[in-house]
């Protein structure tokens, strides 16, 4: 039964990632961590995020603007190992609670059209990227800071998806390497991957095909509401565990 539920979770999360270029960890982590131990769920989610991002990058690479976000990626890579050590030494529920509150608060502001466009974007790349890497290494939720930042800046759907996907591939690759050095990728994680990856690929493929039927305003609203729901869910689950 646990295997079946895990596959359904990954299938839906893969579909969401394929549609919006983010959201896989936001959906899969809160649910998968209830089905397998957290120290197995985190590397599972990061590895599968990397796989589906590679799939999407093949489709979106023409819109990638790495020169625009290289500071964002660099800051994330610096912070990712720190996030891995947080996972090992800090109660994950406190990490999830803080992340959930922060993420949902910013999502609410953007949903209410309270954007704060930053004229000198490069000044914001390091703190946004650092937070993204920290969250990726600790609770595998790198997407929200970047998604909220790009939404706040009003970038197009194509650039949004392409840059987010490219960053995901690079950041997840380094995070996976960190997991190997700390022993988090073990036999159980590899066994889980063998029956979860097919569902991931199917869901991602369907989601990527569906993107052509969604216009720009709907896409942005969908992205923000997904962030909000995930942030609230993450915070509520953390509070329940801490109670």
Question: Describe it for me?
Answer:
This protein is mainly α and 243 residues long. The protein is 83% helix and 0% strand.
In short:
The chain is an all-alpha fold. It contains ten helices and no strands.
Could you spell the SSE succession in H and E letters? HHHHHHHHHH
Q: Assign a percent range to the helix content.
A: over 70%
Q: Tell me the number of strands.
A: 0
Please work out how many helical segments DSSP would assign. 10
Mean pLDDT across the residues is 84
Task: Name the shape in a single word.
Answer: globular
Distance between the termini: 28 Å
Content of β-strand = under 5%
Using the CA coordinates, give the radius of gyration.
Answer: 16 Å
* Helix and strand composition category: mainly alpha
Q: Tell me the major beta sheet.
A: none
As residue ranges, the low-confidence spans are none
Give the arrangement of secondary structure elements.
Layout: H1 2-20, H2 24-32, H3 38-60, H4 66-89, H5 92-111, H6 122-139, H7 143-153, H8 157-182, H9 187-210, H10 216-242
Helix pairs in contact: 1-2, 1-9, 2-3, 3-8, 3-9, 4-6, 4-8, 5-7, 5-10, 6-7, 7-10
Short descriptors:
single chain, 243 residues, mainly alpha, 0% strand
């Amino acid at each position: 039964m646990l295997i079946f539920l895990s596959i359904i979770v990954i299938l839906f999360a893969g579909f969401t990632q394929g549609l919006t270029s983010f959201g896989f960890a936001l959906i899969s982590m809160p649910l998968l961590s209830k089905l397998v131990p957290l120290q197995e769920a985190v590397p599972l989610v990061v590895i599968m995020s990397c796989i589906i991002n590679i799939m999407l990058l093949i489709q979106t690479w023409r819109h990638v603007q790495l020169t625009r976000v290289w500071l964002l990626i660099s800051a994330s890579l610096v912070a990712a190992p720190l996030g891995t050590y947080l996972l090992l030494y800090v109660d994950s529920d406190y990490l999830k609670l803080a992340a959930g509150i922060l993420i949902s608060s910013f999502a609410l502001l953007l949903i209410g059209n309270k954007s704060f466009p930053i004229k000198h974007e490069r000044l914001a790349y390091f703190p946004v990227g650092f937070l993204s890497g920290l969250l990726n290494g600790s609770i595998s939720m790198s997407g929200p800071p970047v998604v909220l930042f790009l939404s706040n800046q009003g970038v197009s759907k194509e650039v949004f998806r392409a840059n987010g996907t490219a960053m995901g591939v690079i950041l997840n690759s380094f995070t996976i390497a960190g997991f190997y050095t700390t022993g988090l990728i073990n036999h159980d994680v590899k066994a889980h991957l063998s029956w979860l990856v097919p569902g991931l690929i199917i869901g991602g493929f369907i989601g990527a095909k569906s993107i052509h039927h969604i216009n720009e305003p709907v896409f942005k609203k969908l992205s923000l509401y997904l962030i909000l729901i995930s942030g609230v869910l993450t915070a509520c689950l953390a509070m329940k565990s801490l109670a």
